Structures are given as structure tokens and as C-alpha cells.
What we know:
Elements lengths: L4 H20 L1 H12 L3 E7 L8 E7 L2 E7 L12 H4 L1 H5 L9 E3 L8 E3 L2 H19 L4 E5 L4 H11 L4 E2 L1 H17 L17 E5 L9 H12 L3 E5 L12 E3 L6 H14 L5 H7 E2 L1 H4 L8 H8 L3 H13 L4 E4 L10 H14 L48 H10 L7 E5 L10 H9 L3 E6 L11 E4 L11 E4 L3 E4 L14 H11 L11 H12 L3 H7 L1 E3 L23 E2 L3 H5 L19 E6 L24 E4 H7 L6 E6 L8 E6 L6 E5 L19 H4 L4 E2 L6 E2 L4 E6 L2
Parallel strand pairs: 6-7, 6-13, 8-9, 8-12, 9-10, 11-19, 13-14, 14-15, 20-24, 21-23
Antiparallel strand pairs: 1-2, 2-3, 4-5, 4-15, 16-17, 17-18, 20-27, 22-23, 22-27, 25-26
Amino acid sequence: xxLSRRQFLQISGxxxxxxxxxxxxxxxxxxxxxxxxxxxxxxxxTYCEMCFWKCGVLAKVIDGTVVKLEGNPVHPHCRGRLxxxxxxxxxxxxxxxxxxxxLIRTGERGDGKYRExxxxxxxxxxxxxxxxxAAKYGPESLALFTHGSGTSHFYPLMRAFGTENVAMPSFxxxxxxxxxxxxxxxxxxIGSPERLDMPNSKVVVLLGSHLGENMHSSQVQDFTQAIDxxxxxxxxxxxxxxxxxxxxxxxxxxxxxxxxxxxxxIHLVLKNGWYDKDYVERYTTGFEDIRDSFDAYTPxxxxxxxxxxxxxxxxxxRIIARNAxxxxxxxxxxxxWDGNDVQRERAIIILQALLGTWGRKGGIFLPSPAKLPPLxxxxxxxxxKRKPLNRGDFPFAGGxxxxxxxxxxxxxGEPYPIKGWFVSGTNLLATLPNPEETRQAIRNLxxxxxxxxxxxxxxxxADVILPECTYLERHDAIAQLRGRELALAIRQPAxxxxxxxxxxxxxxxxxxxxxxLGDYFPWEHYAEKLEEDCLVWDVDFEELKQKGVIVFPGxxxxxxxxxxxxxxxxxxxKLQLYSEELELEDFAPVPEYVQNPQPKNGEFxxxxxxxxxxxxxxxxxxxxxxxxxxxxxxxxxxxxxEEMGLKSxxxxxxVNQDDVLSDPVRVKVTERIRTDCVYLVHGFGAKSKRLxxxxxxxxxxxxxxxxYAVDPIAGTxxxxxxxxxxRKEA
Length: 730
């Protein structure tokens, strides 16, 4: 319900008097102001889904309207502070363009023609089509592409139906190489948030990590604290990013050569005996097998590859080693660059290990050893008759699947056809490389179902659109936060779902009932399941709802001690510098340098990143956030721009090596980027006409990413291998 102007003025005036109290306990100030104005107010704790960081949110609700979002001060992922995107959650909730009712396609795929349907009709349509596909091709011919909280609902639905073809772009197009590298080397993931002890670090090293632009709240706070505490900041990036603006050493590396720099740092550590000998002996294996493998990677060799001076490589290597183990070497998150990404991530981990940073103050702190009792298992899933395609031919792809492997089978029909896609919370046309391949695959489908909040480019290709309500209108799984301490956080609705939208748990359960699979969802309302989970964990459900998060006191053990050794989940129980697992699969057991192609004259390597107020294509239509950043620009080096006769604001087009031509985009002339590359903020250039603010704004970098280098170890897609030329526009 919207507030009248009089109510708003009354509440505003009353709030001013009580705001000092509200800053300490926002519940009291808001409730007092609302009572004085005669309105009904309440605070609803939940956690955010404007990105994957899952920050704790306090939603202020007055007369049924969310009027403000604040960070939950006791939530470890935000510590009371929300970024711009987090504050933009209200914009998502009240976006007039959001999906409002189930839709069934009436025209050709992609032309945006739909008719409104009831939930009964839409779910029956989907269930019937799924059963037809299963009868003709087998249930394995359906695949789930998923991202975010909906995974916990649609994954069991697909498994119950009989398919293991589940793929996550967050693995294949983002963090997959990192996951595979840590699994091979330590058996333990670095975590999300990454367990970097930056407040206690003496040196922070960022390799293409844009802290301050990705706006991961707690990590940006830690980075800021490291700077305040006097840490030396080393930023390796071809672009002078926000983080580079805080750096003591900015290394404007030639794109595609980061591996050379890391190998040179390892060379210096080994040659000069700067490694932690006691740590290496206690907690690693394979040192003798690797110690001579880096002899050729001298600073002079690396300088020729990276376009960095040898003395800069030496000096930064010396700074890193001198301050070990209090060195936070950030492994990055979006690390799908050039197809040798698992090995590059392995090299970072080997350097971390040689410096003794794992489990040491200022390096990488250990995860909380606290354990929760396992939840009781439900009904067993049926065993598929055919091997899942989601790993392709990649031995270390992991359970999160390889999106391009599923797409390839959809295109070729080999080794068996994929005829149905269920897409939840991910915009594949803005995520997978070479979008034309995705469009061709979609044409081969008998069924495409999309579950989303917004009518994205992918959603408007669906046969059936099932509108999900926003995170402020629903329950989801209790988040287990495993940082220094163990914590649990709840997502619960601040308001009832608007329009004819439903939470993902309701959609999955209702569809399961249509398919005769209701036994896999043995509850009427998802809150019942959450309460049962809390009973198993011996957690007060009412307290969790009231506080939004419960942190288990005494659950932290961040550093190695005599009674708290590191617990690596490898066969040896130690960090594996030399990988026998890779060797058995005919991969290099020690990282090796692979030279990447460089742009020709007149070409620029296309690099991309993010804006601090946007989460890629997820937020480009947000009415709050588009006020701050409405469209992207192409960053171009000032010297190059002068040679080309271009000024800031000029319209140009980009054309890639495969003659794909972009829409017009404005130039941002800057000294903050190398001469051999251009830069775009990812996620713009939406083609869905249902997105009234995003349609036609800016340019899609994804359209220009027609080539990709598949990592043979994990099957992930390196996408920074595309080159563009600039065409002037009249």
C-alpha cells in the first residue's frame, strides 16, 4: 500500500527526532515514528539476492510497503552496510516491468508474443511437455540451467524427474577454474566470501580482481581496513581500476599474460629461498618434484611476456615474500579468461603455499570447524539410465556442470538429444559465450521453461514463463555461512507476493505434484521445512526469524596452532604442489606457461567487468540503479583516441574478428587503460522490449564474445580471447 503525502510527512518528521536511536537499533526509531504517524511499521530481517554475497538485510515495512533496506549489523557478510545494489532491492520489488503472471508463447520464439495464463494451465502445460519428452527421448533429455537460490528447489525436481543434466553458468563461465584448482591442490574451497584475512594482511595482491567495483560488502570493508592499517597494495590489471587507485603498485599487465607474472614470482621465491621451509615440510607434498620446474621463468623472461619491467617484477616479488605469511593473494572470482585457467589458479595456490599463507594470520584463515547435524535424507532419487552430459569430457568439471557441454548436445543431438531446458534465475544469452550458438540450441528445443522475476533476453524466448516473486516476497533455504565463525541466516518475506507471482519453492512443489513427484516435497509451506531444519540443528527458529542471523559463538578457529592443524581434504592430507591427479589424466602436474594470441595492428583485446551499482544484466532495468548508471561506455586509451580523432561521448561501433558488429556505444577517453585493449561494463545492450529502461541502452559485450577457449581440465569457457576494431559512427 502506498503512503499518502500526509503520512509520509508525519513519519519523516517523527523519524528525525528518533533517528539517533534508530541508528543503533533501527527497529525502535522506525516503530516510534510509525506509531506517532498512526501507521503500522515493522522490521523484517532477511538476506539479499541482488548478487550472490547474501548480505543480511533489515527491510523496513510501513503499511505493507517496503520503504527502506538497511544492512543487518550482526550479519557477517555486510556488518550493517549495504552496497548500492543492495539498496536497489526496492527497485526490483516495485519495478513496473517485472513479470506479473504466467505467460504462454503465442508467436515465434524471441518475438515476445505471449498470452496470460493461470498457474493451473501453465503448470499443466509444462508437466505435459516434460512427460512427452521423457516418453520419447528419456527424462535425461531435460536439462536445468540454474543460478541462485532457486537451485535448491529445482535441482531436486529435476533429479526426481530422472535427469542429472544440471549446469550452472556461475561455474562454467565464472569461478569453475578456481573451484577445480583448489579441489586438486587443497581439497578445500577458498570459500564465498573468500577467506582472506585482509584486515591483518601486510600485503594484498589483486590479479584482475576489481574490489570496489564488484562491491562485495564485507570484502570491500576488509580491503579498506587493510589500507587503513598500512598494508601494501599490489594491483595487477591492464585497467586502472578503483582498486588500482588505492594501490602502492599498479602493474598494467599485457592482457593474457598473468600466468607469466605468477610463475616469475614463484621463480624468485624458490631461487632466493624465500619460501617457508618449515611450512612446506609440514603441510605440503611434492616440493622436490616442483622446485626445478620454474627455473626458466625469470623476471627478464616474464617482462617480455607481460610488458612489465623486470625490476618491477623483482620488487613486487620481494615485497610479497618479505611480508609472508601475512599476504592475501586474492584468487579472483571471475577467472575464466584464456582456457589455461585451472593451471593459472593452481599457480596462485602454489605461491600461497610456498609463502605459508594458508591458516596463517594475514593470509588465508581456516574455515570454522563447527559442524551442523546432517538433515535427514528424503526419498532417494531415481538413477538415470544414461550418463549425464553436464560434465562433458572434462574430468574435473565437478557436480555443477558445464553449460557449453549441455548446449553442444542440444545442438548436435549427441550422444543423446537434449530437448527441454528449464532455466531458473540465469540469463543465458548474456552469460554463455557466442550467444548465437545459444539461440540455435533454443531453436532445437521442444520445451523451454523460464522461471524469473524479470523478462530478460532469455526469458522472452521461453515457451512458458513462470513469474517468480522477488527475494523480499519469499522464503528460501537457510543460508549456512562458513567464514571465521559458523552462522545461519534466514530469508523470509517482508511483504506478500505482488501480482500473480509465486516463490520458487511453490513453483517446484506444484510442478512436482503435477508430475506425480510430490513425495519429494513433503511439506505444505516452505516455512515448515525451515522450522524442521532448525529442530535438527538445535536452533531457535523464532530467534532466527527475529534476528535474521544466528552466529555460533566460539565456532572460530582461524589460525594454525598446535591443537588446530589445517585439515586438507586431499589423499595425502596436505597441500599437493605436484598433482598426481592431473598427471594421471595426462595434464601437466605442475603449471606451465601457455602463450596467448595478441591483437594485431588496429585491434584491441576486449576486456569486461562490472559497475559497483549493477550485477550484470540482472539489474540493468532497475529503476533505482539505472538512475546511477544507465548504460555502458567503451573505455579507450587517450593516446589511441587522439590518433583516431575520437573524443569522449563520440558514438562508435565495435566489430570483432568474426565480423560481428555491435550496436552504437559511446567512447570514454581515459588514461586508465592500456593501448592494446578496450573495456566494457558487462550486462548492457538488452534486446527484450519488455525491459523499458534497459532495452537498447549501451552495448552487449557478450554479442562480441563469439570465440572462447575451453579449459581441458574443467571444461570452463575462457572468454577474454576476442579482439575488436573500432568503427566511427556518423
